[in-house]
Amino acid sequence: MNTAVKTSPDVASDYAQSVDALYAYLLGVSVFFTVAIVAVIIFFTIRYQRRKADEVPEPTKDGKLLEILGSVIPFILVMIMFFWGAKLYFDARLPPKDAIEILVTGKQWMWKVQHPNGKREINDLHVPVGTPIKLTMTSEDVIHSYFLPSFRKKMDVLPGKYTQLWFLPEEEGEHHIFCAEYCGTEHSLMIGKLHIVSPEAYEAWLSTGGAVSTVAAGDDPVLAGKTLFEANCTVCHSGMPGAIGPNILGAFGTERQLESGESILMDENYVKNSMLNPNEHIAKGYPAAMTSFKGTLNNTQMGQIIQYLKSAAE
Amino acid sequence: MNDAAVSEDAPRINYLTNGFSVKSWLLSVDHKRIGILYLIAMTCFFALGAVAAGLFRLELATAEADVLANDTYNKLFTAHGIIMVFFFLIPAVPGVLGNFLVPIMIGAKDVAFPRLNLASWYIYMAGGLTTLGAIMLGGIDTGWTFYTPYSSVYADSNVIMAGTGVFITGFSSILTGLNFIVTIHKMRAPGMTWMRLPLFIWAQYATSIINVLGTPVLAITLLLVVFERGLGFGIFDPARGGDPVLYQHLFWFYSHPAVYIMILPGFGVVSEVIACFSRKRIYGYEFVAFSSLAIAGIGFFVWGHHMFVSSQSEYAALIFSALTFLVGIPTAIKIFNWTATLYKGSVVLSAPMLYTLGFIGLFLVGGMTGLFLATMATNVHLTDTYFVVAHFHYVMVGGMMMAWLAGLHFWWPKMFGKLYNEFWAKVGAAVIFFGFNFTFFPQFIAGNMGMPRRYHVYDLDYQPFQMLSTAGAFLMGTGLLICLITLVMSLITGKKCGRNPFHATGLEWNKADSPPDTHNFTEPVNVDVEAYDYTDERIYRDA
Predict the structure, then answer these.
(1) Architecture (CATH level 2) of domain A100-207
(2) What ipTM score was computed for the predicted complex, to two decimals?
């Protein structure tokens, strides 16, 4: 039996610490006002308790002061919460450029993970200490949510869409990975361990088969994507003479001009949507000639093409 | 004049003695009898929801699975949520106290549409029994939130039937809301101006507006889920070009204001009880009245705070966060004003007052922890954890349920003409208060430590908190039983009471008998006093 009961979450990053500081501010304000109001109520209840059955107190005049103070002071305190919370939230959204990208697919009831070199693992996640990690996530079925409590970060994982979660592992160690969005029968078993290891250990781990790896090395998503791209997309989308579509090799991550006059960021969701619903956004200067790849390419294959397009833009 | 003497000579027929057959109840269009029908039905639903909670709390006492299978656990927390939200929390105060009191408080003989009122009860029952059928015939395991595409495609349980049940019940809310709005506008007695209305009426009015505007959105959303599941619509299913996040927007567009549907009537009760047991006009009557409307208005524009990690736009999240903080301000005003009402009052800690002060304490914690969830960065960590579970139970159980019990104890003598045993009523209130805190306070800590909600088995680190929670739940259950027995016993052995046992202001206490006449009043009603005028000596004549 372990001796001490833990009452606070592990702190695995500076960001977690800054969220905890905000939490402490919220806690301070909350405890102060709760205790103050409860104390006033208890004091009034005792001080003004009814002494005679026929006692009728003098009516009190309504003052505007209480209403004004009662609105302005809470307003100032909550605006501090709002700006502080929003600032941290936005800081935590944008992944740094040098982040290692790892693909995560949620499926009832497991996390399927694929590292940049194609190495896979299930539920657990190995990452090197000191490098930002960007998880690009999607789901094969229902909505899940990737939750790293020690990093105070969480992001829903949706079918038909890519979402991202990034974090900076600052110390070696092990932490919880939970699915936080209820996803059915074995929701509470959709858990894993985050293993933060030294860069050398990570490299070594990447190059071994490992007990958790289900697919042999060589299953590189970029290479697989290149093959798929050349079989399905090259004719129109690689800048060949007379091509009827825009050259998209090297365009990933840039703003694309549309026939409608708008522009749109070419990211994972845009590419996938273009494969499924090609006529939703027509590239400027090109005809609406592409047909949908729905049923032709599966989710994994579309993901591989996206990885290839990303690598082609680097 | 001595009321007791009169009633012994020739017992006047009141709404309870006006016919004893089952038919005279089930086909009654008397708003008071309909209120009692709601009370009986709702108590049964509440008991079922509580039993479901008791069972899964037993399971959660230890980290491993030991009492229930995972599917059974999932079905029980779903049943608990659906029953408590749609068949207890939302309709309790409007259905029972609102039906009974709204016409009497404004000096009317009945609601504007009495038959529609009875129809609302039947719709409520039809929806309730359909949902109950879904739960009994195999159950439903989606959680009360019915998130797609789990509910629409993947769940292997009675989603269609349960969704239909909740869909049907929604019309009961809409029609009751409509009935109250018209009643309050058109049927006030001469002299009952808007600014003389009891705050309970203001709260019912604000609630009714949300019911009428919000509930249709829930209805259509659930209908879409049913069609998607049954007929293969593709609105929410990405495999057919739909968007599962759209479901969340539609669902929370109703279900966040629904929190105010639950809590605003409770605010109304609290205002009445505090005024009576401190013999003071509610401090800042206008602010309290209009803050209800402000909450109802702003409450419609904060739904996105349920979705900060759902992949909605960051900028949308920013706006939703700001508006959520704003909706906290009118709520804070109410708490300050209730507290200020006690100042230089004549305070008695009766049973309804204990429940009410318990309400303020617990609701305060619920509101304060709401700030943690309105704040974007802490929300990301805390959402979908036990912190959220604890937060909304503090608001809905600590807030709404305590207010409901305060109201039930306050108007019980009016409804049945009998006084309950004050000592045991207070014991019940105290046990519920402590049991509640034991149950839900530890969940804040477990949540901040990262324990996700809706987990059947969990990490050992969280076990101490879950054990406390389970122990607290059974303590709270004991308190509820004490409360139930005390109230039921009062019907058998309780002392009869006169019109105004608590010396409260208001037409229901001063112009109507206990229990009221079938037509509410036996004399014409004319209002010549401001609300909560505790200096009016007429209220002290009768007991």
Answers:
(1) Sandwich (2.60)
(2) 0.92
